[in-house]
Amino acid sequence: MSKPTNIEVLDKQSMLGNYAKAVAGMLPLPGAKATGLPDRVLRIENVRIDIDNLADYNHVCGLRLRDTVPVTYPFVLSFPAVMNLLVAKDFPLPAMGMVHMANNIEQIKPISVSDVLTIDVHAADLREHRSGLLVDLITEITVEGELVWRQASTFLRKQRTSLSDEPRPERTDSAPGADGRVANTTLKVTPALISQYAEVSGDRNPIHISKVGAKAFGFPSVIAHGMWSSAAVLGIIEGRIPDSVDYSVEFGKPVVLPAKVKVYADKSANGWSLALRHPKKGYTHLTATVTAR
Questions:
Q1: 84 vs 61, 122, 132, 190, 196, CA distance in Å?
Q2: Would you say the C-alpha torsion 198, 199, 205, 210 has a positive or negative sign?
Q3: Most buried by CB count within 10 Å: which residue of 51, 150, 243, 280?
Q4: How many CA atoms lie within 13 A of 290 on its CB side?
């Protein structure tokens, strides 16, 4: 699917109250829900890096402050536009209850803390999955008209589809740590830490900050943000990530808080393989690859 040509520029007022809209979207309201994806791009112009916010982000994710932003930080910058798209009346799926399945980042060149950014977000590739419907939220960031960063965030809306009765494929675990070796490091994840991340990132989804909200969606307690995990796991190879890099993440079982998680890393010829695992049961919360472009 090609990028839509219809561009809608967002202002600050239009980016407020999105979680209230998301909750309202759960209610049975009159009128038919859209069946196709919005044919438009949401744009945020003249975005400047807030150094205090960046410092707080790096601190809560266990990363060092530099003159360029971490490869995962632009997700925070684009999040207001992503939420605006998800809660819009012409978006076919309800925002609340969407599950972040995967995230693929292409960093063409690092983003400097002094860069002035233009952020474009659009939806693409609504498709069936055995567990529901998948959709990609595409983010593109340019500096003076040059594409520097691109991301595809894949979300799942759980429901029955024509693929629901297909047999589940066998899965083999070849990610780092599958051999039972000692982890490279351990991360302690607390509700307080994740509440801090929610404030820094703007992602205040109730499943991350409210036990009641988490239980309403079937979780025993609050869970960590997938994008916190994808940032925190990079701390193990910080300083060794290429300037031009692809970072691909698949999310496994959620990190239910409080928790301790094991981090594993394997070096390859052109990058790294990473995994975040449960310390006792060994299943993966996250698997990822970091590959030089």
A1: 25, 10, 22, 29, 22
A2: positive
A3: 150
A4: 24
